[in-house]
Write a structure and sequence with these properties.
The chain has 634 residues and is an alpha+beta fold. The protein folds into 3 domains: 151 residues, Immunoglobulin-like, CATH 2.60.40; 270 residues, TIM Barrel, CATH 3.20.20.80; 122 residues, Immunoglobulin-like (Sandwich), CATH 2.60.40.4040. 27% of the residues lie in helices and 25% in strands. The protein has 16 helices and 37 strands. Helix 7 runs antiparallel to helix 8. 51% of the residues are buried. The mean pLDDT is 97. The structure holds ligand MIG. The site of ligand MIG has 10 residues, from loops.
Length: 634
């Protein structure tokens, strides 16, 4: 049962697609106070658990920390942080006698103090008082999620090939880089379906352009790669380079499609291309205009994109930089104290993604000026909707792959997400795992983390262990930052181990793909906390390093260094399966705690009693998969 409560005149976030009758606010079932800000609160008792909040830090059970919904270009996903790239305002609260879901539909900042200030109290502070609440009651957590998913509309489904293995690296720039990635995979019997193009393919980082020196005939290059069954996926950044004569900028500027300063001039900031205009994705016409720009690259044969820097990420604004120079000028040449020095240093560091800037530019929403700060969390979602809606209209469903870094609930209907700039840290394998059920709760099914880690230098064992989780995530992409140690599967001496693990992905595609489609159809979660499936099992409730997958399985990757296996908890008897290349070993295990050994080239999987899962024969790409002749394991 879903109840909708409205306070004031909320901004239309487009998150909810169903028509729901409003209830009287006096019937709102939680504590509610309204002054300048709206605050919702409720008691937390001993064993109560809180799930949700989508893409964010910390545990599957979110209790005991303070989170902020504020789409952030956060480059260090450590547990002291409060926000990452997404703003996913949905939680499920689970206590012994009552379970409920709460969606706070609000496009500005929301603070979730879930037992941080006071362990017995949850306090949600909304940065304003025009907001819609959806309160959902149900028998089980999964049922509450399904009801929620039903009102926000069906999840995006990518093309089938998007379930293949994908390689990415910030730094591939010339044609020969891409060809060598392709050929090295082939030569080492490593499967591959896609290679990503990061910002270097562009001409001076200008969206929808291709550097002609690097790619003299881009169209034939794309088609040549496709003839080898490799899809190329260019990145698109939110900011549009300010350059006279660059048609996208000229048109956007002329038509007033960029975000504005209060005086009506374009708000300008520095990102990779230098000074950019920020397309006003909150403006319907600007949105349609930007969406149609993708055609330039689609016409060259490209059939997918990833949208980046759309929180939006700002290195500095021109007005912010002017102020910083002024400060510097005042100090320059004088004898300064240590605090002056720190102040000066911080003045420049604080220019990045600053609240001053977010509070100082405006969107044009149907003729009305809206301050960015009040709708910040919609920016990336609306950018991606612009693309996704255009793709569906012009090319049909399931034709183009698209996923985004920033998101709000609603974007799950038109695109997937990736989890941004993680590190080659063992603990980030676990963070990857923990985010999967929470983003599924919010409708994001096509998702995944940068396997191997984006920042920092990888090691072969870390990458193998991470891939053994990645074989189960719909988006399975190995990606790394410029200047980090090479981490393609063929860069390590034990290449065969990588071939063994990647082969398992292709063996599992029939299962992963069908489970994905079923979950999209039925508004279900692909990955669930054990707590959702075994609510009466005290041990299962607290498991934070294993997940249920589909109706059939449980996954439990090894995520620590120098471990030949791990401890796993089985809430019921299961078959423990190890998959490696074409090899399968299986052992029946009773319910309870076990230590299981897992070699670096093996993928561990636990299958429930009386369940079986299909396996295809390994293939080198999705085009070569035989989806008809399947084996079954149980
Ligand atoms: O400021 O395009 O998260 O995946 O490789 C960094 C370069 C910009 C951030 C993305 C990352 C991408 C990188 N981008």
């Amino acid at each position: 049962m879903i109840k909708k409560f409205r306070i004031g005149k909320p901004f239309d976030t487009k998150a909810v697609t169903a028509e729901i009758q409003e209830e009287k606010i006096s019937a709102f079932p939680l504590e509610l106070s309204q002054e300048e800000r709206c605050v919702v609160a409720f008691e937390l008792r001993g064993e109560d658990m809180i799930f949700g909040l989508g893409e964010t830090v910390r545990g599957i059970n979110k209790r005991g920390w303070i989170y902020e919904s504020w789409c952030s270009d956060e480059t260090e996903h450590t547990e002291d942080k409060r926000s990452l790239y997404g703003a996913h305002n949905f939680i499920v609260v689970s206590s012994k006698d009552k379970k409920f879901g709460l969606f706070v539909d609000f496009p500005g900042k929301v603070e979730w103090d879930l037992g941080y200030s006071n362990p017995d109290k949850a306090k949600i502070t909304i940065d304003g008082n025009n907001v819609d609440f959806y309160y959902i009651e149900g028998e089980t957590e999964r049922d509450i999620v399904k009801q929620f998913r039903q009102i926000i509309g069906k999840s995006y489904i990518p093309p089938f090939w998007a379930f293949g293995y994908q390689q990415s690296c910030w730094g591939y720039s010339k044609q020969s880089d891409f060809i060598s990635v392709r050929d090295n995979h082939r030569a080492n019997n490593l499967p591959l379906d896609c290679i990503y193009m990061d910002i270097d393919y562009m001409d001076k980082f200008k969206d929808f352009t291709v550097n002609e020196e690097l790619f003299p005939d881009f169209k034939s290059f794309v088609s040549d790669m496709k003839a080898h069954d490799i899809h190329l996926l260019p990145i698109i950044d939110a900011g549009v380079k300010k350059e006279q004569g660059y048609s996208v900028y000229d048109e956007g500027h002329k038509k007033g499609y960029f975000c504005k300063n209060p005086d009506g001039t374009d708000f300008e900031c520095g990102v990779w291309p230098g000074i950019v205009g920020l397309p006003d994705f909150l403006n319907k016409d600007a949105r349609e205009w930007f969406g149609s720009q993708y055609k330039t690259l689609i016409d060259m044969g490209v059939d997918g994109f990833w949208n980046d820097m759309n929180e939006p990420a700002l290195f500095y604004s021109t007005k912010g930089l002017d102020k910083a120079w002024e400060k510097l000028d005042k100090l320059s040449g004088r004898e300064i104290g240590i605090w002056d020095y720190f102040g000066m240093r911080d003045t420049f560091a604080r220019l990045q993604n600053s609240m001053d800037d977010y509070s100082s530019f405006y969107h044009n929403v149907d003729g009305e000026l809206v301050c960015h700060k009040d709708v910040h969390n919609l920016y990336g979602a609306f950018m991606t909707n612009a693309a996704g809606e255009y793709f569906e209209r012009e090319y049909g469903r399931e034709k183009l792959l698209i996923f985004s870094r920033a998101s709000y609930i609603g974007a799950h209907r038109t695109s997937g997400i990736w989890f941004g700039d993680n590190y080659s840290w063992w603990e980030h394998i676990l963070l990857n795992l923990k985010m999967l059920p929470s983003v599924n709760m919010c409708g994001f099914l096509y998702c995944g983390a940068d396997l191997g880690g984006f920042n920092n230098n990888v090691t072969g064992d870390l990458l193998l262990r991470w891939l053994a989780l990645g074989v189960f995530t719909p988006l399975m992409r190995n990606h790394r930052a410029l200047g980090t140690r090479a981490q393609e599967a063929y860069q390590f001496d034990n290449t065969q181990d990588f071939a063994d693990v990647l082969a398992v992905r292709y063996r599992l595609i029939p299962y992963i793909y069908n489970t994905f489609r079923r979950c999209a159809d039925e508004n279900d979660m692909m990955f669930r906390p054990l707590a959702f499936d075994y609510p009466e099992d005290k041990l299962a409730l607290e498991v934070e390093d294993q997940l249920m997958l589909g109706e059939e399985c449980m996954i439990a990757p090894v995520y620590e260094q120098n471990k030949s296996g791990r401890v796993v908890y089985l809430p019921e008897p299961m078959t423990f399966v190890k998959l490696s290349g074409e090899n399968i070993t299986s052992t029946k295990l009773s319910e309870g705690i076990h230590y299981v050994e897992v070699k670096l080239n093996e993928v561990p999987l636990f299958i429930k009693q009386n369940k079986k899962i299909p396996l295809a024969m390994p293939a080198l790409n999705t085009a070569g998969l035989d989806m008809e002749n399947l084996d079954y394991i149980s």
